[in-house]
Amino acid sequence: MGARAGSGVTRGAATSIPLTGGARVAWNRALELWGVHMHDAELRPGAARGAPAWFTFPPSITVDTDMVRELGGAAELESVFAHELGHHVLAPSTRIDALKIRHQLARSLVASGAETVRDEDVALLSNLWTDLLVNARVGLLQRRRDGEGAEPGIVRLGRALYGASRDSSSRLWWLYLRTYELLWHLPAGTLAIPQPPEAPRPAAVRSRIIDVPLEKIPERFREQEAALRAARREAERVAAELDGAITTHPMLDADLLAGIVRAFAADPVGGALRFGVLAAPYLVEERRAGDGAGVPGGQCAADDAPATAGELGRVLADRRLHGAMPDRAGRTGDEPGRGQRLDVARTLELYAASDPDVVIAAWYRAQAAPWVRPVTQRIPTRPAFDLPGPLETWESGDDLADLDWAATLQAGADVVPGVTTRRRSWIDDEPEPQEGSVELDLYIDSSGSMARPRTGSPAVLAGMILALSVLRGGGRVRVTSFSGPGQVAGGDGFVRDPARVVGDLAWYFGGSTSFPLDLLHRRYAQLTPPRGGERRHLVVLSDDGLTSMFGDGNEPFAGVAAATRGKLTTGTLVVLAWARRIEPLARAAGYDILYLERMDDAPGVCARLAEVLHG
Questions:
Q1: Which residues contact 495 (CB under 8 A, 6 or more apart)?
Q2: Which of 298, 347, 494, 572 has its CB surrounded by the most CB atoms within 10 Å?
Q3: Distance from chain centroid for Cα 614
Q4: pLDDT in tens, 403-434
Q5: How do beta strands 536-543 and 439-445 pair?
Q6: 504, 490 Cβ separation under 8 angstroms
Q7: pTM of the predicted model, to two decimals?
Q8: In this structure, are residues 515 and 443 in contact, taking their beta carbons and an 8 Å threshold?
Q9: Coil vs helix vs strand at 478
Q10: Per-residue pLDDT tens for 359-368?
């Protein structure tokens, strides 16, 4: 439980002490309350963590007994233990759920207008949400155990810990305390002051640009400069309106929040977004006002380890993290709404401690997942084994090996050839259809005219859909990222490793556009046309600069694309080309073209292309 320690406190050495005496009794009672078993909590007087107790992964509970005593909670050590055990049992329970809760709250911050996704903001909201769930459950369990007439120990602990922060100017903190009053059935004013603090005023934002008098600007530029200044003033006006658009209603929101805690008592991840929709605007409001005091207290459920590739994959695969953003009442519209998902840039902010390449790969894989269908290739059928048919009479002279003795003895105790003897007939079955894997040779343009993968690239997402569809069908993929002359990345061989494929797709050069014809020639010159079950598919994702693939600016290799087409099963160009200058060149060389009106159409086009390749 988070609470601010008093000033002037001197901390001793953070040395662990044994869990004995009253602390042992309190620990055992807390374990019995939750009905679980766990290794002993660690008592560390003077740990100076900023909170009287905290929970970390792997599951571990630590209590600063000095701080608990200073805050007046020494008599409620059972409730301190029970609260931290609640983080182990209920919320967040697992590290994966902890990451999912943080992700949901980051979405709510973005939807509330936060300029950046700050780790301390996400951690604060996560701690408040999980504390509400845990403390509400602890209060319920203690009432059941001790009887309705007895005040739960968690309530007495809350009075002690939250008393020092009662007069905080933070409206978010007032909302938090008032919600406890509603959940614990306490009179208004028990934990929080009767009325919420006034809403903070947004800090005045002054333009850092000092305008030079127009008469000092050359006459030929004055009109453009005047238009620029007018546009800047309009942008500042809109920004001021947005600052005032954040609406918070603490009295009403406390009622709504108490209902959310009750409704999502067993679903911390599902309820985190609903909580964030109510709570995040208060935090954004405080940040815009430049309020340095913030919410009192420290974090009692924290884990600083960066998310791994496996964890990111599991987190981002949860479809709850991509659903529609609800309004304050919990309603979601049919139309896509603001903040339904975190874009790749915001996701990188949220997981700043993790390897950015791992984050990018996990994000694109999660976005591609709904589009991915296994791509295989139909190959000639093979004969099927005969199916067993009905029994027939075995006649004298038939092959003795065909005699079915079990069926014969069932027909009668006496074996009479041609009368009681039986044999099994066989019928022909339809040939079994077969599907074979395919090879996809994917080339993706990473020139300056294409979007950067770190800011969200539809081309990379489209390539991911194609590549993962082939890999899902058991095929192999080779990805080549290209830009200007000599700017080529990717492996030479076909692979089945999704991580390698994703890494090659996310490579970005940002130069000019020049298709690597020399590389294409080296790869295909010695190959023969596909035979039997071989299926080779070449796909290029680019824009109008792809004319270089047919020798434009690289005349010595002008015939390579046409020669390569004869070594392929299919060759497809997915291009954003308004002028369509590439069409006669591509048609002459035998390539199919899929035009894009805008690059955002690429994922859908490539999903349909995957269906075509499947046949």
A1: 476, 477, 478, 501
A2: 347
A3: 28
A4: 888 888 888 878 888 888 888 887 766 665 55
A5: parallel
A6: yes
A7: 0.81
A8: yes
A9: strand
A10: 999 999 999 9
